[in-house]
Amino acid sequence: MLHVAESIAEIRRHVDGWKRAGETVGFVPTMGALHPGHLSLIAAARAENRRAVCSIFVNPLQFDRKSDLDSYPRTIEADRRMLEGAGTDALFLPTPAIMYPPDFLTRVEQKKLGDHLCGATRPGHFTGVMTVVLKLLNIVGADRAYFGRKDFQQASIIRRMALDFDLRTEIRVMPIIREADGLAMSSRNVLLTPEARRIAPGIHRALADAGAAFASGDRDAHGLKDRLHRAIGALPLARPDYIEIVDPTALSPRDGMALSGDVIAVAVFFGNVRLIDNFVLGEDAGGVR
Length: 289
Ligand code: AMP
Hints:
By secondary structure, the chain is of the alpha/beta class. The chain is 39% helix and 18% strand. Helix 8 (152-164) links the parallel strand 5 and strand 6 (170-174). The longest helix has 16 residues, at 125-140.
């Protein structure tokens, strides 16, 4: 049965009860408009813990464009049904006033990992993400929390924050779930026009092609980036925000030779809709090309 908790005290009451009974708790923070990518995290939480908790909160602090916050899809009734069907034990559903009361003053800041990629083009975004994730992890007090590799930079930043702040919740990062045509699943995909939706899988094709070029011996990071710029630049309607190959730990742009394990990370606008995707060099395309 899915317990829906709208207050901090209520979600803690559920989790504390389970923990007193010796049960482990997995936690999946989301912004809702759930899709199979989110449900894969719930499945992982259930597989590795006795109880699974999800949160849905569209966090105003992490949006750098008001139009993006206003247009972010909200499908709470469908979300509840999906969570129930996936065997989730509790949903934490706070309001902005509960998360950020008028006297809220503190922000989480991190050096370096947010300097590149989304951090460079979305000022304040990761401070907003870290602040809400730290609050949610403290509120829920789970044994493990689950994040998607789709938001690769976010996962790296949260992992670092958990280490730096000695958080007791273990951070788990899970694979990207894609549509059959390769497009990374995202709550924002429903905002694409039908034409953009047809074109958008070209992003993953470009990443996989660069991955294949790397696998067949093409190691020059600039050459690989040129190839990506050409392929993504050739997609009608697509406007790249960034296209990078980065060191997987420092997240700094790779110069010279690309190495196995490096990550191709891209953000691409279709109109106002900004999509991100990434691909680990030296891995295959997961059967989707
Ligand atoms: P969001 O609701 O977009 O904030 O995402 C909530 C969590 O789901 C984040 O950890 C995301 O990385 C993860 N997620 C979103 N889309 C996918 C996907 N296609 N595959 C795997 N995880 C995802």
